[in-house]
Amino acid sequence: MIFDSLLGWLSSDMAIDLGTANTLVYVKGKGIVLREPSVVAVKKDAKVQRVLAVGKEAKMMLGKTPGNIVAIRPMKDGVIADFEVTEAMLRYFIRKVHNRRTLVRPRIIVSVPSGITQVEKRAVRESAESAGAREVYLIEEPMAAAIGAGLPITEPTANMVVDIGGGTTEVAVISLAGIVYSKSVRVAGDKMDEAILQYIKRKHNLLIGEHSAERIKIEIGNVLPEPPFDQVEIKGRDLVSGVPKTVTINAEEIRDAINEQVETIVEAVKSALEHTPPELSADIVDKGIVLTGGGALLRNLDKLLRDETGLPIIIADDPLSSVVLGSGQALDNLNILKEVMIA
Ligand SMILES: Nc1ncnc2c1ncn2[C@@H]1O[C@H](COP(=O)(O)OP(=O)(O)OP(=O)(O)O)[C@@H](O)[C@H]1O
């Protein structure tokens, strides 16, 4: 019986939020011990590929590497896009958490987007196992996010959570420790960055990298900007002359640039509301919708969702950590894990 093997968990056991943008690790009894971008810099010589840097150090190299070095983001749209590199990244993070001591192989809880395929689930399990896990348990991200945000998921009442990450936006209605309805769209922070990059290219003939696009979004991104608009100077390469140049961009332009992605997220929320059984809808009217994930920090997204749905919208206390905090609670309290883990 699988639950028998839940006994005897060790202090080296951990919960990992293997995100498209960031990877977070929670160690049993200790809390969050690692928070790094999901980026790996790899050097390719002849046929051999060597990992040069992982996490923050590798993210600094994005878009700045010479020919034989590539900075790779091995997760795309919430799932593993490059199996080997994901495994190398996980191995690095697990060893870092353990201070490179070789301990008993840990049991690991990994959160995955809701509705991922069996093949994608197997890829996550296998990559965690080859990176050193003894056993791997999976939890759906919106469930983990809801637990991490402190929602009473085991009660017979609706909890609605919208987790906006780098690769996916997950909308879910949870009651009695089960997901009553969920919708996962592969539109979130990364697609916004891409849209900003394309907008600046089109409108200002300026080429910028994805790292700069993300920085602009975080600095002045706002879904309901008002004059005087915040603005930021950006440097890039002029498409026509080929030389470096600087332009000033304002928040209204960025709203325009990411409008389509924001609309997709709003529509996903509305569609979830339409598919929620009436008894549970009544609970949502009272309790509202909780936003988690880095995208919850996009300025005024909560206000826009409130305008569009007429419901109370609450941003979780620490939206970037909700998922790993929820998986961490399942690690600390195995009764929760038994209820929410998926096959
Ligand atoms: N202040 C901010 N304003 C807008 N977006 C932000 C802000 N801070 C972080 N983000 C965005 O949040 C995203 C990362 O969020 P998070 O770490 O929750 O995602 P993830 O778990 O790695 O992704 P996924 O759940 O899709 O696998 C990035 O796109 C980042 O640019």
Features:
five-stranded mixed β-sheet, 343 residues, 4 domains, binds adenosine-5'-triphosphate, Nucleotidyltransferase, domain 5, 28% strand, 11 helices, cell shape, MreB_MamK-like, alpha+beta, Cell shape-determining protein MreB
Short description:
The protein is α+β, with helices and mostly antiparallel strands and 343 residues long. The protein has helices at 56-61, 83-97, 118-130, 141-148, 189-204, 210-220, 251-274, 278-287, 301-309, 322-332, 334-340; strands spanning 14-18, 22-27, 31-37, 40-45, 48-54, 69-72, 75-76, 79-80, 107-112, 135-140, 159-164, 169-175, 178-185, 206-207, 231-238, 244-250, 289-292, 313-315.
Q: Assign the CATH architecture of the largest domain.
A: 2-Layer Sandwich
Radius of gyration from CA coordinates: 21 Å
Biggest sheet strand order reads: 3-2-1-9-10
Q: Write down the oligomeric state.
A: single chain
In helices, the fraction of residues equals 25-40%
Would you identify the regions where 5 or more consecutive residues have pLDDT less than 50? Answer: none
Average residue pLDDT:
93
Bound molecules: adenosine-5'-triphosphate
CATH class wording of the largest domain? Alpha Beta
Give the count of structural domains: 4
> Strand percentage, roughly?
25-35%
Q: What fold name goes in the CATH topology slot of the largest domain?
A: Nucleotidyltransferase, domain 5
Between the first and last Cα atoms, what is the distance in angstroms? 13 Å
Q: Given the structure, what is the number of helices? A: 11
Per CATH, the superfamily of the largest domain is: ATPase, nucleotide binding domain
Order of helices and strands: EEEEEHEEEHEHEHEEEHEHEEHHEHEHH
The profile of the biggest β sheet is:
5 strands, mixed
Q: What is the count of β-strands? A: 18
- The outline comes out as flat
Structural class: alpha+beta
